[in-house]
Amino acid sequence: MCFIICSFYTLLERKVLGYIQIRKGPKMVGYWGIIQPFSDAIKLFVKEKIVLHGSNQILFYLAPLMGFFLAMFIWFLYPSDFAFKFVCWGLLVFFCVSAMNVYAIMLAGWTSNSKYAFLGALRAAAQTISYEVSLLLILLFPMFTISELSTDVHMLFPILFIFVPLILTWFTSSLAETNRAPFDFAEGESELVSGFNIEYGGGGFAMLFLAEYANILFMSMITVVLFMFSWNFFVMVLQSLVVSLFFLFTRGAYPRHRYDLLMNLCWKSFLPFSMCVLMLLSIFVN
């Protein structure tokens, strides 16, 4: 199910970017291009598998599988009225799994035995690790506010109204964590010839990007659960769709950021800000 949702999210992205740029987007394959995700999947997965002689072949093919598995596994935490399992320490699981995503990127870049891929992996790893720190510190705010570690919570009052700048910092950090524009330095086409995934084609390329889109949708869901209303499953799904649209609007509205400014934004702005917010929260909670 998540695989199909990610596929159609790519179609939504291409449609939204098309209308932002005053064009139609995919419209030839099926009615309104509705079959485009299926044609893209068939095209990618039936392509010839090219074996790189200089690569570490086992780990080279393992890296996309690892990234895709981690992205699918984290959806185990999706709160639903129809779920039959309850994860008491859901946010702790989210911390652990999200921290492991960087290994898939590093493996993909290092095992390709390509300088472009390795440089892209180093940049992506530095960016991901840096923004994980600010993300986790920001997540402590709703955790301490509701005194809950589970993702299966029902918010009756949106926490984002308590401190509005926090949700803006969270959304910006989510953009950097998921390698989305204007912080898409992991796939810097103009500087790195597509970055860590340059040597991948076909199925491996598809799994890497399906993992990225699955992470975007999960970050949209966790934003709704912890910062907005989540008292109803269908309301939560609609809100998650709206938040995911902001990822697309941001890509269409802003140019790519500079890498040094991106790192300064994390360590010199977001990190002190999130720590100050936690200090203020500790005063009020006590």
Gross morphology is: globular
State the order of secondary-structure elements, H for helix, E for strand. HHHHHHHHHH
| Count of domain modules | 2
Q: For the terminal residues, how far apart are their CA atoms? A: 44 Å
Q: Strand portion, in percent?
A: under 5%
* Beta-strand segment tally: 0
**Weakly predicted, low-confidence segments:** none
Largest pleated sheet: none
Overall average pLDDT: 85
Radius of gyration: 19 Å
Structural class, from helix and strand content? mainly alpha
Helix content: 55-70%
State the helix count: 10
How would you describe this protein?
This protein has two domains: about 45 residues, no CATH class; about 240 residues, no CATH class. The model has no long low-confidence stretch (mean pLDDT about 85). About 65% of the residues lie in helices and about 0% in strands. The longest helix has about 30 residues. Helix 1 packs across helix 9, helix 5 runs parallel beside helix 10 and helix 8 packs across helix 9. The chain contains ten helices and no strands. With about 290 residues, the chain is an all-alpha fold.
Question: What topology does this entry show?
Answer:
Blueprint (H helix, E strand, L loop, with lengths): L1 H19 L15 H10 L11 H17 L16 H22 L3 H32 L17 H14 L11 H4 L10 H25 L5 H21 L5 H27 L1
Helix pairs in contact: 1-2, 1-8, 1-9, 3-4, 3-8, 4-5, 5-6, 5-10, 6-8, 6-10, 8-9
State the gist of this model.
Belongs to the complex I subunit 1 family. With 286 residues, the protein is mostly helical.
